[in-house]
Structure formats: C-alpha cells, structure tokens
C-alpha cells in the first residue's frame, strides 16, 4: 500500500512561487517513477510532472518552463517547484507513482489569486 504525504500548498498571488513536498512510504518510492498530479474544481485529475529514479523529467505542456520536479532517493522525497504561477494553476496537488497507485493522499491545496 502506498502511503503519501503532500505539503507546501497555500495562497499565492499570480506570478508567485511555491514549493511542494511529498514523502511517500519507502516501499513505494524506490525505483519507481514519481509524479505530481493536480485536480482543479470540476476537472479531472491530471499528471503535470514526473521524474524517474535516475532524475529524468517530463512535464505537461501547461506547466513546462514554470514547474520543476525533483527527487532525492536518499531522503525518500519528491518536490515540485512552481514558478510564475497562474490562476489556472489553482488545484489540489497530489503525488503518486506513475502510473498512479489506487490510493491517494489528501493532497495540498494551491490557490493562485490576487
């Protein structure tokens, strides 16, 4: 079973930055691809960034150039650095395996608003 814990969300003005953190259970981290997902009100959950155990990354077009995903295998932690935030980035953000496991954490709320 995957145990996940996201943190770092909050209210930020357009153009601002946030850094999200996730510390999944060690058994789920390992050599797996980890990703950050988000779900905006009234929309389906989407994958916005993923990182392999070797550090290779991939991003959704909507966040490319603004978000950076990274991980530290020794610390068993994955981060999402978000820059130049826009109102449309408002969502609950989750971390999970890629492909996602059936269980999800509570996520962390990001609100981009002036």
Gist of the model:
Helix content is 4%, strand content 43%. By secondary structure, it is mainly beta.
Describe this structure in words.
By secondary structure, the protein is mostly beta strands. Helices cover 4% and strands 43% of the residues. The chain has one helix and ten strands. The chain has one helix spanning 26-29; strands at 6-7, 10-12, 18-22, 34-39, 46-51, 57-59, 67-72, 77-82, 91-97, 108-112. The protein has a six-stranded mixed sheet, with no helix packed on it. A four-stranded antiparallel sheet has the order 1-3-8-7, with no helix packed on it. Strand 7 and strand 8 form a beta hairpin. The longest helix is centred in the N-terminal third of the chain and has 4 residues, at 26-29.
Q: Structural class of the helices, strands and pairings?
A: mainly beta
The residue fraction in helices comes out at under 10%
Which parts are unreliable, with pLDDT below 50 for 5 consecutive residues or more? none
Q: How are helices and strands ordered from N to C?
A: EEEHEEEEEEE
Side-by-side strand order of the widest sheet: 2-10-9-4-5-6
Averaged pLDDT: 92
Give the termini distance in whole angstroms.
39 Å
Q: What is the count of DSSP helices, taking H or I runs of 4+ residues?
A: 1
Radius of gyration: 13 Å
Give the strand content. Answer: 35-45%
Question: Tell me, what's the shape?
Answer: globular
Report on the biggest sheet: 6 strands, mixed
Count every beta strand, where a strand is a DSSP E run of 2 or more residues: 10
